[in-house]
Amino acid sequence: MLTYWLMFLLPASAALFARTRRANALTGERDYRLDGMWWSIVVVLTALIGFRLEVGGDWFNYFKYLFKVRDISLGDTLLLDDPGYHLITWLSVRAGWGVFGLNLMGGAVFAIGLAVFCRSLPRPWLALAVAVPYMVIVVGMGYARQAIALGFAMLGLVALGRKSTAWFVVWVVLGATMHKSAVLLLPIAALASSRNRWWSMAWVGVVALGAYVLFLQESVDALYTNYVEAQYQSQGALIRLVMNALPAAILLGWQRRFDFSAGEAPLWRWFAIISLVLLGVLLLTPASTAVDRVALYMLPLQLVVFSHFPDVFGRRGKRNDLQVAAVVGYYAAVQFVWLNFASHSQYWLPYRFYPLELL
Questions:
Q1: CA distance linking residue 328 with residue 346, whole number of Å
Q2: Shortest CA distance to 185 belongs to which of 298, 84, 301, 303?
Q3: Whole-model pTM?
């Protein structure tokens, strides 16, 4: 448990002493490039995710992917479902790296996406602290394919916030090669477009249709049967969706106080609306697992809202220690409750680091 608490307390401590990063006066955007410190964070997160040993609820499921591509060609690998994930699996098998190579490559994509996303926000350290309890520990270390897709999606969201719809589509399609559900993010590009909206809706719609045919069409019947008709239940889904709904309500209720650029404002407004809709859908359908998996892509909203939170409810440009401490305290409580009381947390405990197991 100590590893998880160090992962949280280090960025949380930094957040308590950091001020808001000012946006560019002309564009309203912040420099998201990674400096040496943030590249170090990427390396550490990649190592913790990639070298974990028997950590995460899906740990033993990874091996079926390793066995699937062990004796087939690269061409046949690329014809499988989720070809991007099978590709890095194939590369890891061929290199003799096994499950650790697979998780290191996936962890690197997730960590880079998360670091770039945090750097684009007014309080990167606070955003990273917010990400640790669920996005990093649970998703990054438990939902391998969807974590990689989320990493690509966060790169896309940074681009879309800067009105680069094309790059958003590129990153999301790359994410869909890892987990086909990422395709569901594509319509957001059209919804959030603030210029050439009809043109954006047209070409993004064509790309979304193509991605649907390529990644989802053959799986729709199976997905519907497995997640909807079977009424799979995801324990804790209501709590996780409420955690998205809370920042959604804050954003919609005080949106004029948020220091968004012109491209970011419609994007995060739609994320807030979708998060609230998903909560409503959860209350109306017994297939909570399906809703829960879609809601994973709404997790960046928590980082956005709570990174702005101290300035929304405090004095703009000041440290606003009380507001920062409130956010840190809230997510410390989330991590404490999850580690001690979640029904599946035993699959994450204790944290085991493969290189240390060799000593």
A1: 24
A2: 298
A3: 0.91
